[in-house]
Amino acid sequence: MITTIEAVLTAIVYLLGGAFILFIYEAYTHTHQKNLLILAIGMFVLIFGSNFDMLAGLLLSGYITESTARILALLIEIPGILIMLYSVIKS
Length: 91
Fold this sequence. Notes:
The structure is a single chain. The protein is an all-alpha fold. The chain has one domain (4-90). It has helices spanning 4-31, 34-50, 52-59, 66-90. Helix 1 packs antiparallel against helix 2. The longest helix has 28 residues, at 4-31. The relative contact order is 0.17. The model has no long low-confidence stretch (mean pLDDT 93).
């Protein structure tokens, strides 16, 4: 069961993360450095995955268990971190 405060905090994380991603993408549009675009994609995946369990609890509570949602969140976060690591190594 997701509480109201958890739902509000999840929305805040998505909004702040989205703003951060937009700043990275804006830097990409000015510099055209591909590593910034890759970093923005990795950050999107990481932020989406970091709160996937809360999002699933809100939207898919009847279809997915809490432990499955946590596992899926981790499985989404790992590629996000790897994409960001690739961005840093490539630059």
